[in-house]
Amino acid sequence: MTTNGEGTTAVKPLKVALLGCGVVGTEVARALTTNAADFAARVGAPLELIGIAVRRLGRERDLDVDPALFTTDAEDLVTRADIVVEVIGGIEPARSLMLRAMEHGAGVVTANKALLAADGPTLYEAAARHGVDLYYEASVAGAIPLLRPIRESLAGDQIERVLGIVNGTTNYMLDKMDSTGQSFADALEQAQALGYAEADPTADVDGFDAAAKAAILASLAFHTRVSLDDVHREGISEVSSADVLAAQQQGCVIKLLSICERSRTADGAEAVSVRVHPAMLPLDHQLASVREAFNAVFVEATGAGQLMFYGPGAGGQPTASAVLGDVVAVARHRRAGGRGPGEYAYAELPVLPMADTVTRYHVRLDVADRPGVLAQVAGVFAAHDVSIETVQQRQVTGDDGVDRAVLVVTTHAATDAALSTTVEELQKLDSVDSVAGVMRVEGTDSRGA
Amino acid sequence: MTTNGEGTTAVKPLKVALLGCGVVGTEVARALTTNAADFAARVGAPLELIGIAVRRLGRERDLDVDPALFTTDAEDLVTRADIVVEVIGGIEPARSLMLRAMEHGAGVVTANKALLAADGPTLYEAAARHGVDLYYEASVAGAIPLLRPIRESLAGDQIERVLGIVNGTTNYMLDKMDSTGQSFADALEQAQALGYAEADPTADVDGFDAAAKAAILASLAFHTRVSLDDVHREGISEVSSADVLAAQQQGCVIKLLSICERSRTADGAEAVSVRVHPAMLPLDHQLASVREAFNAVFVEATGAGQLMFYGPGAGGQPTASAVLGDVVAVARHRRAGGRGPGEYAYAELPVLPMADTVTRYHVRLDVADRPGVLAQVAGVFAAHDVSIETVQQRQVTGDDGVDRAVLVVTTHAATDAALSTTVEELQKLDSVDSVAGVMRVEGTDSRGA
Known about the structure:
Chain A is an alpha/beta fold. Chain A has helices at 23-34, 36-43, 74-77, 94-103, 113-130, 147-153, 168-180, 184-193, 202-205, 208-222, 241-249, 316-336, 373-383, 416-428, and strands at 14-19, 47-53, 70-71, 83-86, 107-110, 134-135, 159-165, 232-233, 252-264, 270-282, 294-301, 305-312, 358-368, 388-397, 403-411, 414-415, 432-441. In chain A, helix 5 (113-130) links the parallel strand 5 (107-110) and strand 6 (134-135). The first copy, chain A, has three domains: 14-143 and 317-336, NAD(P)-binding Rossmann-like Domain (Rossmann fold, 3-Layer(aba) Sandwich); 147-312, 2-Layer Sandwich (Dihydrodipicolinate Reductase, domain 2), CATH 3.30.360; 357-441, ACT domain (Alpha-Beta Plaits), CATH 3.30.70.260. Chains A and B meet through helix 2, helix 6, strand 12 and helix 12 of A and helix 2, helix 6, strand 12 and helix 12 of B. Chains A, B: Pathway: Amino-acid biosynthesis; L-methionine biosynthesis via de novo pathway; L-homoserine from L-aspartate: step 3/3; Amino-acid biosynthesis; L-threonine biosynthesis; L-threonine from L-aspartate: step 3/5.
């Protein structure tokens, strides 16, 4: 930690208020106090932590700051700051406090993906109206610089697709299921024991967290407002050990993907598709090798080609790093008397319903082992204009001693509606005992990523 | 390409001058004219291409713009622009033109790594003096957003280490040598045939290009001015097929790495080490799987942990994407009446000489196959305080029918001076016929990356 301090001592400090002092807030407060000289040198003015709003005073904390900084009066605190850092999470009181901060002229830094995905426009509009910054790098993929590259570095390019693993908990679980053959229940238990998953794992396991991040990514990538409700969402609780094994037999691994891509409506108009679901990825795809609780995001742009960003997606220190990068940015803008680029929703592209989204399916069927079954099955696919890429047929002997067969079908790209209707129709065939597994397939098509 | 155009037609356009119309310049000009509506929406004002400075007029170009835009009078052109894009390359006239542009109040975007590494401070100081932006994302790792994340996203963190493959030509060659067993000469010929390597490949093969990029990365990462002369540089022309094979036998691959890390002087003061050299990387290291002419950079920071950025490192369109991102940034700043964060050299850390840099060696020795040789060899390492991690001994029969042995030694970390003196001393031993190969080893130590 070095600084020449030149010219910074005489400069008026910028006042920073911190809302929340959990895992991330603690690291933010620690860094602001411990590395104060560095921040002063990088901003050109000292950053002064003027208060930390908490729910209860007097709690034991692993943080060496003046106890007088703690307050339960967040409403007052935000009116006295130049920069407000919100790491409370959730919708309220986070939203009201941020709006109040902006009304009073403060720039806001937040890690609150749930709020941004649910009601981002309210915040963006407030920031624009009051001429202040609203930064939220930490809301997606923790420490990985991702939103700034999308918003600024690629501002002269056209982003075609964002494909990412942005939920560490589910990636940890799927990785364990893949590498050790664990069941979903066992993997969840282990993730909870290690603190990766919450006692109520719904937000992670059912894809809400990944969907909120997909909404934020799509909004920035396509200059279009996309909210949580626009995102098609499927979690991983239906992923079975049999699915994992079937993926391995195809040279694939199952990942929970957040996918945002430019698309077209049925009548050819520009649109976007935003979805979260588990999918098979071929092992040679770069996202396939993302292990444990790491995050990684592929970004494909017309000019830049395929880019990948990789790193820790959560944790106190990594998330604090992203928050603090934003604090420095907002502080520099205040020093320079302006604000950074805001949110640009000029494109206003429609979000395609999942039924119209083009995707590929892997379908496993338990069928009777007799001539003509494959033809019958293939006929159902053809009837719905779904083209088959590969079929594998394997003979098995059932518990009843009768020979049966397993058919594994991988389709070419088709609309999700056509694919799901096909699966429904297959279930009705006499020769089909059951549909043993359905999984989307990504990362193998002509779009490259 | 969509825009609502709202409020942008009445706004005064920002004038963009382009210096150079090669591969990158052509793509920049094409994008500015083809996607004008998008740029206007993202900037909040139209970007007007007012001229393209070229050496000769009347040349056939694959570019559909008004022929009147071309001029040979770059000196005049830069005085009429709000934003000057320099893609000529080389030291002069690029430097004089950029200085002139800044004197006249223009923001400058450049891809010129050679100039920045050779004489960056002259440009940084001019930008600060005239209160204008100087952006150069395209100078390192092509389209990969890397400088902005380092400069801005990680501004609240402390970067410990940057380890990257930033020269596509040499990565292509080393990849071919590794995957096909080609010699250096054959790999070079193939790279030239494919247009990856120049007729005079010195800048790539001898590491000048990678060293210039290392200087730029270290300057930004450590807030310290590092120039090309400060960078220890070794190219790949000495890398033999035998080295590649030896690396494979160790479960490694050879890559040309640009390495910037925080370090300590002998008396414990903070310092930085900046170097470019080929090194063995274990196959499970993420940079090991970077194939063909791709670039990838690891960044390790105290808070963020390990991040990786991956993508195309060169090419007209990817480089133009990075240039255009900078153009939008500079244009937004001009609209807002300010400039972005400048260069921060406040830390002024000394650059450690290579001799004092701590590294690890892989050494292959052809030795006599008799008792006591290993003890003799180990004694030389010990005499220079170099600790051995592993030794492998293999018996071979020479052309003369005499049994000899090959010793493969991997050391623990030691200063480069101690390691190179050790190798010199080994050469003098009677029992050592020759030092068959010496290669540094990276990515396996406790520092993690």
